[in-house]
UniProtKB/TrEMBL annotation:
Basic and acidic residues: bias regions: 119-129
Descriptive protein name: Type VII secretion system protein EssD-like domain-containing protein
Origin: domain of life: Bacteria
Region annotated Disordered, chain positions: 106-132
InterPro entries, per the entry: DNA/RNA_non-sp_Endonuclease_sf, Endonuclea_NS_2
A Pfam family annotated for this UniProt entry: Endonuclea_NS_2
Type VII secretion system protein EssD-like domain location: 72-197
Length: 207
C-alpha cells in the first residue's frame, strides 16, 4: 500500500521521520472480550495495549471529576469523541472518524487546572476544540504552551473547520497521540494525524 500521508513539518521540527501507511497508523484490532479494544499503533508515541471502554461518566476516579482512570477508553463531548488514558491516567489519544461543528453559538467555560500546567506559560488546551463540540472538562484538556494552543494547534483546527464549512461539507477524521516524557504530567509533544475527504496529513507539535 503506498504512503498516503503528506509530511508536514511544524516550525523548527523538520521531517517527521519514517513514512507509514494508513494501515500502520490506524491499526485497531477489536478483542473478543466485550467492552475492550486492543490497539497497536506503530510510531513515536508507542501507544499499545488493551483499553477497557467505560460507560459515559465513569471515566473519572472521584466525584469532583478532576482525575481520569488509568488505561481506559472513553467517549465524551457533544459528539462522543473517543479518548484513551495511559497507566498514569494521562490522556494519550483523541480520535474521531467524524469530526463535527457544534451549532451552539456560546463558548462553554472550561476547566483551567490541567495536570502539570506551568503557571504563566501554559494554557488548558482543548484536544477537540469548543467549536467541534469538545468537552470543557479535564477529559478533553491538557497543558499546552500558549504558542501551541493559540497558534500551532489552532492553525490545524482552522483547516478542519474550513473543510467542515465547505459546500458540500468535507469529511474530516482526526487521530491525535499525546506523548509524555517519563512520568511528566504535561505533554512533551502532539502527533496530529488527520484526513480531509480521504487525503491524509500529519504534523508534530513540540510542547
Amino acid at each position: 500500500m503506498p504512503n498516503l500521508f503528506r509530511e508536514t513539518a511544524a516550525a523548527g521540527i523538520g521531517n517527521l521521520g519514517e513514512r507509514q501507511t494508513l494501515g500502520e497508523l490506524f491499526s485497531v484490532a477489536k478483542s473478543g472480550i466485550k467492552g475492550t479494544v486492543n490497539r497497536t499503533v506503530n510510531g513515536t508515541g508507542g501507544v499499545s495495549g488493551v483499553k477497557t471502554l467505560v460507560k459515559t461518566g465513569e471515566h473519572f476516579t472521584n466525584g469532583r471529576r478532576n482525575r481520569l482512570k488509568p488505561d481506559i477508553r472513553y467517549k465524551t463531548g457533544e459528539f462522543d469523541y473517543f479518548y484513551e488514558t495511559d497507566s498514569l491516567g494521562r490522556i494519550e489519544k483523541f480520535e474521531t472518524d467524524k469530526l463535527q461543528l457544534t451549532k451552539r453559538e456560546k463558548r462553554l467555560s472550561h476547566s483551567k487546572n490541567t495536570p502539570g500546567k506551568v503557571k504563566g506559560q501554559e494554557h488548558a488546551g482543548h484536544l477537540a476544540g469548543d467549536r467541534f463540540g469538545g468537552s470543557p472538562k479535564i477529559d478533553n484538556l491538557v497543558s499546552q504552551l500558549s504558542d501551541v494552543n493559540l497558534k500551532q494547534y489552532k492553525k490545524i483546527e482552522e483547516k478542519w473547520a474550513a473543510a467542515l464549512k465547505a459546500e458540500p461539507p468535507k469529511e474530516v477524521t482526526v487521530d491525535v497521540e499525546i506523548v509524555y516524557a517519563g512520568n511528566d504530567m504535561r505533554p512533551e509533544k502532539f502527533l496530529v494525524k488527520y484526513t480531509v475527504d480521504g487525503e491524509a496529513f500529519s504534523e508534530v507539535l513540540i510542547n
